[in-house]
């Protein structure tokens, strides 16, 4: 089953790990249980879609994850992943507030989003589903907004005379 990572990112990550272990591509291939041509083809651009089992074998020998090699998780484009995470949180907050008939200003968005982002980032670090975390967070925000709106609609208590 082929995987389609950014091949240049895969090459760069492979090279970095190989340099750390001080191994060449022939030794890497042998120790990962692959033919030398499999690794050589990745480096020479002949293999744009290495098989998932090849990438897994390389990652296992190098002591990293497949995600770190292809750059889709912690070892990869962290900056991009953080922006995606923030965008999901901001979109969720915007939807929750719109459903409540409210508009969220930028400074309010930041004040609410930062702790949610930190909580979601911890979930990423613990390999928990980010989407599930964000969905739960938005449910909590929605419930809190409903409570606040209900409190505003109640008549003030009558002061004792």
Give me the secondary-structure topology.
Layout: H1 7-21, H2 25-32, H3 36-44, H4 52-62, H5 66-70, H6 78-99, H7 106-125, H8 130-153
Helix pairs in contact: 2-3, 2-4, 6-7, 6-8, 7-8
Short description:
This protein is mainly α.
Please provide a written account of the structure.
There is one protein chain. The chain is mainly α and 161 residues long. It folds into two domains: 7-70, 434 Repressor (Amino-terminal Domain) (Orthogonal Bundle); 78-153, no CATH class. The chain has eight helices and no strands. α2 packs across α3 and α6 runs parallel beside α8. The longest helix is centred in the last third of the chain and has 24 residues, at 130-153. The chain is rod-shaped and about 70 Å long. The relative contact order is 0.10.
Gap between N and C termini: 79 Å
* SS strand fraction: under 5%
Poorly predicted regions: 1-5, 72-76
Helix content: over 70%
Describe the largest sheet: none
In total, the number of strands is 0
Number of domains: 2
Order of helices and strands: HHHHHHHH
SS element count, helices: 8
Inertia-based shape = rod-shaped
Question: Radius of gyration from the CA trace?
Answer: 24 Å
- Quickly give the structural class: mainly alpha
On the 0-100 scale, what is the average pLDDT? 77
């Amino acid at each position: 089953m082929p995987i389609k990572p950014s091949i240049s990112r895969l090459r760069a990550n492979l090279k970095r790990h190989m340099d750390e272990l001080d191994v060449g591509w022939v030794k890497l291939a042998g120790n990962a249980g692959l033919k030398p041509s499999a690794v050589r083809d990745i480096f020479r651009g002949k293999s744009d879609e290495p098989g998932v089992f090849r990438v897994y074998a390389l990652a296992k020998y190098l002591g990293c994850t497949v995600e770190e090699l292809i750059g889709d998780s912690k070892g990869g484009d962290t900056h991009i992943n953080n922006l995606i995470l923030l965008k999901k949180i901001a979109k969720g907050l915007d939807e929750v507030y719109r459903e409540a008939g409210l508009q969220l200003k930028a400074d309010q968005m930041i004040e609410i989003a930062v702790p949610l982002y930190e909580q979601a980032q911890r979930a990423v670090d613990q390999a928990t589903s980010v989407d599930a975390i964000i969905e739960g967070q938005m449910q909590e925000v929605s419930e809190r907004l409903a409570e606040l709106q209900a409190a505003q609609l109640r008549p003030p208590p009558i002061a004792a005379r």
